[in-house]
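To assess whether the prediction recovers the assembly geometry, we first specified each molecular entity separately, as shown.
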Amino acid sequence: MALSKLPYKGTRDFFPPEMRQRDFLFNKMREIAELHSYEPYDGPMVEEVELYLAKSGEELINEQIYSFVDRGERKVAIRPEMTPTVARMVAQIHKEQSKPLRWYAIPNLMRYEKPQKGRLREHWQFNCDIFGAPEGLGEIEILQVATGLLRGFGATEEHFEVLLNDRRVVDAVFGQLLHLSSEQSHKLYKVIDKAKKVTAEALDKMIGEIIYQDTVKAHFKEYLKLDTFPALHSFLERHELKDAAGGFLPFTERLHASGLAKFVVYDPTIVRGLDYYTGVVFEIFDKSPDNRRAICGGGAYANLLQIFNEDPLPGVGFGLGDVTLADFLKTHGLLPTFEKPSISILVSYLDQAAEAHAFELSHSLRTLGVKTELYLGEAKPKKVFSHTERRGHRGVVMIGSNEIQTGEIEVKRIADQEKIRVKLNDPNSIKSFLE
Amino acid sequence: MALSKLPYKGTRDFFPPEMRQRDFLFNKMREIAELHSYEPYDGPMVEEVELYLAKSGEELINEQIYSFVDRGERKVAIRPEMTPTVARMVAQIHKEQSKPLRWYAIPNLMRYEKPQKGRLREHWQFNCDIFGAPEGLGEIEILQVATGLLRGFGATEEHFEVLLNDRRVVDAVFGQLLHLSSEQSHKLYKVIDKAKKVTAEALDKMIGEIIYQDTVKAHFKEYLKLDTFPALHSFLERHELKDAAGGFLPFTERLHASGLAKFVVYDPTIVRGLDYYTGVVFEIFDKSPDNRRAICGGGAYANLLQIFNEDPLPGVGFGLGDVTLADFLKTHGLLPTFEKPSISILVSYLDQAAEAHAFELSHSLRTLGVKTELYLGEAKPKKVFSHTERRGHRGVVMIGSNEIQTGEIEVKRIADQEKIRVKLNDPNSIKSFLE
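The predicted structure of the complete assembly is given in tokenized form:
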């Protein structure tokens, strides 16, 4: 039986057109991060399992991770997310560094997923984090980077929205208003996460299994109906929860000052599951009814360094996956095609005697930064032209015995079919002609 | 016990300075590959073990690979090299594509190594391959890309050399001149690989264990002494092996025509082990006595698609690792430092009332493509200046109540301490001032 030519389940082969698309996405991520003064970092693709256990607990680890035992009896795993790695790295150096630290990475990650639209086993994730920023300001900046990326692709508030909440609000509601036990809170967090994915009846039923008293149920439903910041403000005021919500209220004012307000909507169901967040949490959603899904999620966390016995260092960050990003851009017609490479010129030669000249011209052009394809082997003009058409070169040159004799070559620009004659050893003129 | 902050054995954390260095190396790889019209590709970080077994055989697999069984009972491995993946991908599409295919990738790979200088468990490797090129010409181009990369960093024939041989020559010598059995050939390949790493006595002993007749031994030693192309030519002529060496002799003439000759040396001990090569093989060596090691290895292969039951498609390629590349560049003083980020401007504000203006100015600057760090929180001028010194911004701006009142701000250029006054909402002037 012949060997399979297909990639491993849930992973992708990136042929040149797909890879050019990926480079386009990643280059924009790098550009936007660096415009905001974020610095690049990366860690290993494999970490010891301990690190993930300490951060996420047994359940997630056993279900979702690619783990194995190495030859030195170490339990290791392919990284399923970047946060534990960045926490480990920051724990190493944060004491000697001035704050804030602003870091970004685009790692490849693997999770044990059932492959489906927008979810693969291997994906790349744009991660940005800021550590040690003043309260409320790191949150603003991280939202600027995340929305800045989508805007960098041409997306606007027509295309996406930032659904935002605060874990301090949720904790105040659960603890001080609903008086839930920690077990009930834990369960209700899971229900909230599903609130938008199920029918009203199903939601009622799930709530009823956790909360028995009608007044408490009514309060919880009142909370779930909040859909603007003013509504949230008056709700917190009415129930005397303003102090418990901490810095969230001044933060919401900064959304206006920073120009973010038009993208942001208050959403009581955004809690980011049982994750490590402790403050602002958010998800960016595609507004298209055809692709109603989260493109990005993140928030503020206070205690990520605890597992390394380090003092708390506040952080804010987000993760944004390449698969959901491409789906979002495609949905809104914001993704160019990358079928053809972008090569400036095809250099070809018609007989063996011209080969050395073609080598030399190609080399000189490349030295000037001109992307040059050399047509390998003696060429027939007809084949050269059909090749140029297929590959989309901007210009083409053919060297034969005539050209060697006269010391001049003809360069043809494909777009307008213009031609110039230049000296055989004058790559500068060719470069300017094609620019 | 606190969790370890160190990365997994044999892997690296890339903090921003190291990551900027890595980006510098990778950007040059991309640039040089694209100048030669090579197109980017990538595959998954995990492949089924079968693929590696089919290509490299049981021995290498068991010793060097990170393999495990997934939850679907598939035997998989983290990619230890890129060639099996590229062969699998080319096998998928080569029938529909015009030739040659020119592809490059910079994958992260893992091998079970004992960590030492230049050898880590995780590294990145620049891979370039050309498929379906006319005989001899793909070889020239691949050598141009490999040497072009090193030259792109400023290296010359003073710094590196290409040691080159041909498997057809070795096979002709072993079969037609030495009349070795395939078992003897196999063993002698391993000896040749070590020829330069052991003493003359040790080499003699190893040869004596495989070859018993003195005349045969003498012929082999004569072969091992060849160190120029003319010497090789007359050796092949003397022993009537010219035909068996196939296209190698015309190829060596092309080394001159293509400008490669000054980098290339004939070396009879370059055979690339028991690998899949069938024609030209080469290794690029650092010429410094302090770092006498191979930076890059590659060659021509004919039968890589066989394991997929596909027709033969000739290929030539090389791999070049990031660790040995950085060692090479460092050895010759060709690696800049990357301690500080390159941020164009620091925008700061002296009191809360100026925060919104600072948000706005930062946003406008970024929209113009100016890398802007916003100093988060109300700043003291002294702190702003020490921060700028540490981070190396090109310019700095402070907004306070005066600036809001007059609607003008002062921009200071750090390099020459020049200052200009511009309107608060005039990011264009700031941009030109800093360029």
